[in-house]
Write a structure and sequence with these properties.
alpha/beta
Length: 83
């Protein structure tokens, strides 16, 4: 689970989102809440590569232009990342 810091939360965050405007907006919001670094995966392939790492939290868009992120979401959950 994400730890609280003076600014809100802390730790690495992952955003899986194929819409750049939405992804960058979420990245900014998470950064303001204290998360960092906040990584973005725009494709299903990138999401699966990122999902092998550990994050404090992940925000996941399941239906991507390049396919789905279901496999990545399951990997993240299996690693203990709140999705």
């Amino acid at each position: 689970m994400a730890e609280r810091s003076a600014r809100g939360f802390s730790g690495r965050a992952l955003i899986i989102e194929d819409d750049a405007v939405i992804a960058l907006d979420l990245q900014e919001m998470l950064g303001r809440r204290g998360f960092g670094p906040v990584e973005i995966a725009y494709t299903a392939e990138a999401a699966e590569r990122c999902a092998a790492q550990t994050y404090s939290v992940a925000i996941v868009d399941i239906k991507l232009a390049s396919g789905t992120s279901i496999v990545a979401a399951r990997l993240l959950q299996n690693n203990g990342t709140p999705v």
